[in-house]
Amino acid sequence: QVQLVESGGGLVQPGGSLRLSCAASGSGFSIYGMGWYRQAPGKQRELVATITTRKTANYADSVTGRFTISGDNAKNMLYLQMNSLKPEDTAVYYCNKDPPWKNYWGQGTQVTVSS
Predict the structure, then answer these.
(1) Residues in CB range of 31: below 8 A, 6 or more apart
(2) What is the C-alpha to C-alpha distance for residues 37 and 33, in angstroms, rounded to an integer?
(3) What is the pLDDT of residues 14-53, one digit of tens each?
(4) Disulfide-capable partner of 111 in 9, 43, 74, 79 (CB 3.0 to 4.6 Å)?
(5) In what order do the strands lie in the sheet with 3-7?
(6) 74-82 average pLDDT score
(7) Is the distance from CB of 13 to CB of 6 less than 8 angstroms?
(8) What backbone torsions phi and psi does residue 91 show, to the nearest 5 degrees?
(9) Which residues make beta-bridge pairs with 23?
């Protein structure tokens, strides 16, 4: 059973950057087939970035060119580098498989973009 713990969120001004981390414990973790999701207040959770099983990265239109997903299988870590942050990026960010597994949802990490 894999457990996922997200970290790295915080308060940042518009135009700023953050790097989110997702630490996986347990056996069987691979960064391929993993993604980052976010949920803003009053909105549905959305997928923003994935590393596919073909080892390619895909992004939601709203973050393309600003966010970069990466990972390190040796360290059981998944990352999301977020640049040029906008207020509309404010949300709780989660990592999970794509498509998501119910038992993999962690607590998430809050990202707030505000001046």
Answers:
(1) 51, 70, 71, 72, 73, 77, 78
(2) 13
(3) 999 999 999 999 888 899 999 999 999 999 999 999 999 9
(4) 9
(5) 3-7, 18-25, 77-82, 67-72
(6) 96
(7) no
(8) 180, 170
(9) 5, 77
